[in-house]
Amino acid sequence: MSDIQSIEKMRHSLSHIMAAAVKNLYAGTTTVQFGIGPAIDNGFYYDIDFGGQKVSEEDFKKIEKEMRKIIAQKLPIVRSEKTRAEALKWAKDNGQKFKEELINDLPEDEVISFYTLGDFEDLCRGPHVENTGEVGVFKLDKVAGAYWRGDEKREMLTRIYGLAFETQEELDAYLKQQEEAKKRDHRKLGKELGLFCFSDLVGAGLPLFTPRGTVLRDCLAAFANSYRERCGYQKVCIPHIASIDLYKTSGHFEKFPEMLRFVSSESGDELALKPVNCPHHSQIFASVPRSYKELPVKFLETTMVYRDERKGELGGLSRVRAITQDDSHVFCTEDQVADVFGELIASAKDLYAKVDMKLKLRLSFKDDGDGYIGTPEMWEKAQNAIKDMAEKFQMDYFIGIGEAAMYGPKMDFMAVDALGREWQLATVQLDYAMPTRFGLEYTAEDGSKKTPIMIHCALIGSIERFMSVFIEHTAGWFPFWCAPEQVRILTINDSVNDYVLKIREILDGMELNDPIEHNKVRYTVDDRNESLGKKIREATKMKIPCVLIVGPKDTEAGEISVRLRDSEEKIKLTDLKAFIEKQ
């Protein structure tokens, strides 16, 4: 058995042990009804109806104590089977309406398994450890509300989360990481650094970016676009609404009608806010006759799309309703697919190396569900092509079943941040279905009409989501090239004003070339009548990467005192330009 399977069994077993402890502690005063209790990354949870009793983190100590009593007994965890009638009788006799609902939803011919530890029995597919003494170390983590089966019209249950690892060292390391993550929380830093805000009048999930935040956004977008512009991608611009017929043709309306919100019009036309850009871009391709000589045709656009999300799923910039994509689409022949993928893979590798993130690769394939467009033959061809591409470019990968886009398989690049967390950001998608649905064609060398292949790509994906990851990855200490305020000049007193003018002339005359061309130095001057100590503290709090301190002695010596994040030094005024260019 793999280590992953082993730890999942331990975590799953702990969810049952927690449920048994809850039953022991609370069932005497009310009917405790259990929902589901799976293993998850780093631990487990159980959704429970406490019959009106309020359970909070203050109750964790007694629940953990009861769990440890159960663990110390090394109770066997025994699997058994029941017929459908027996399982339903068990659920009714024990007042477990949620379990009864789950049993009724099981296929008629499915074996219904239960697991018992001591006097606690639970409906469960398993698997579990042999006995309660084999579950490693744990700690209850937090309480949250959870609608039964994720349906906001159903009962609200209490979800208790727990952490679980094989050793105390692993648990301690995770807790330390979580403490660091709290300090780096992009919502906290975004407010402290004045990057973005939200307004109830504007609406949930609709961030508003300040001047400082907009500088960061624009730098990141230009950085991502620069890679594709070097590879011949051309910018296009499309409207933010479209006829609903566009999405009926693309398949989005059929599969995801909840994504589209209609806009009434005096003309009577049915319009929708765009949830994606690819159908629009397909129509730019279709607007003129195309020859094989023009292919590949490469379009690039950084633009917003709009998708409805439940309020409970919105969070800072991580999940929003207005999503800015660094989107691009390529229309090419089959012989050109490898070269296009090669360019994009190389670009993704270099981009994430420059922001100091490691990359892992997930091949996202379809499952057996019906939420996809295109024929089985198209999917098999596309998935084999994606896999061949990963192997050709010597990429280590794993396959995620059910993670595909509705129109084709994807290469999803998983970025690993400074805390070791994985985020799905960049993506390259192969699409045989949409060009066929739109009747796209080009004239081949032999004069025949052929359907191009479509490749979708975003190097940073959602700029909002990328910013949330990037803020936490850097802890707000952005690289010099994209820092909203790169340099702050601090004066000790008014006697240095003329000297500050010389510094400003040097900075005003500079253009930074890497990685964004023709980028002026962004600086401010703090010449307030405040103590130098206060000015330094404020510049540090705002995480300014380069602080220039100017006093009378510096003026006399033709020098500048420089404070970087982790060092201090003196430089000559004549060396300032070269010094800034190195940052």
Strand content: 25-35%
Which word captures the global form?
globular
Give the number of DSSP strands.
Answer: 30
Termini Cα gap: 50 Å
How does the major sheet shape up?
8 strands, mixed
Q: How many whole angstroms does the radius of gyration measure?
A: 29 Å
Helix content: 25-40%
* Number of DSSP helical runs: 18
List segments where confidence is low: pLDDT < 50 over at least 5 consecutive residues. Answer: none
| Main β-sheet, spatial strand arrangement | 11-15-16-23-20-19-17-18
Determine the structural class based on helices, strands and strand pairing. alpha+beta
Mean pLDDT: 89
What does this entry look like structurally?
With 583 residues, the chain is an alpha+beta fold. 35% of the residues lie in helices and 26% in strands. The protein has 18 helices and 30 strands. Strands 11-15-16-23-20-19-17-18 form an 8-stranded mixed β-sheet, with helices on both faces. A hairpin with a 5-residue loop joins strand 19 and strand 20 (422-431). Helix 3 (84-93) runs antiparallel to helix 4 (97-105). The longest helix has 24 residues, at 3-26. The radius of gyration is 29 Å and the shape is globular. The two termini are 50 Å apart.
